[in-house]
Amino acid sequence: MPALSSWSRPAILVGVAALLVMALTSGLAYAGGGSSLGTNGSSTSATGDSDSGDGNISASAGVKYDKSKNGTSGPSGSVGSLTPTGDWTPPACWYQPTYTPAQMKSSSETVWAEDSPSQEWKNGERDYFVNGKPYTNFNLDKAGEGYFWSGYSPPENGNLPGASSCTDEPFWVDKGRPAPAGHTNAVTPEVLAELAYEQILIPQGQANTKPEATQTVNLPTWVWMDATTFHPVSVTAYLPDYGISATTTATPVGIHIDPGAPASDATLFPADGNCKNLGTAYTAGAEGDPPCGVTYLRSTAGAGHPYQLTATVTWKISWTGTGQPTPVDLPDGTFGAPQDVTVQEIQTINR
Q: What is the average pLDDT value for the chain, to the nearest integer?
């Protein structure tokens, strides 16, 4: 079915169109209360109540998530979201299947009645036009064969730029068919991959160091992350009735060390602070400069406070999905937490 492109009697109903779009994008579209940020569970829907057969939205309408392989609590007992590199961010709003024909009809008629309760309207005067012809049945004869798609933005995205930009009039999409062109961020496998990116959670934890507690001036400190905690995680986003899905995977590929001290007071290994993989765990008897670490040249006593050592993990992000078996890169993500480091100075006496 073609997209619903315009309203009958446009001079009279411009305000009605705006009211209907507002109701469809900010009212019933929030029926499910937004996407869950839980770390477990096989699936979580962005919208939806169960389909009772009376025109209510189906539980399979809207984006759903499989988070069974998402990150779980790290050493600190919590998880956190990734920060994408650069200025890229996942979509703040998108178009997804939202209304059955009966629900679309009911929503439209409710808005029309509220707009002009004292006026009588003949059948068809407030129906959509499609290719110049009045469209009067809201696809009631196609119940179960598709949905009207409309804009959706989770409540937690309310303050994000672009969260209220998905204001196109609702449009019909048959099950198993792609959304018509021209609707920015209408759900596709690529959009699903970007939405899955936003759901990825990374274990929150601090770096391991050797020595484990107080460091010593001019003696190297080994730094590494625990590979049993920091490992690849993934989230799958999908539209069941439309047969499309995408799995976005985050893989830790390196760490960057910020010693939390002036450059003149610390020597990094490597010199740029960018360690391969997750660093190298210290082994008993290891000598010399660490492959990943820092040597502090001044004690924290002089600074008056501990240094804030931060090991930021870089996660490589890629996705595969419907029609895309080969991984496609998305912007890298980073995650790191500062930790206090105390550095002592050992006095030696020459005799």
A: 79
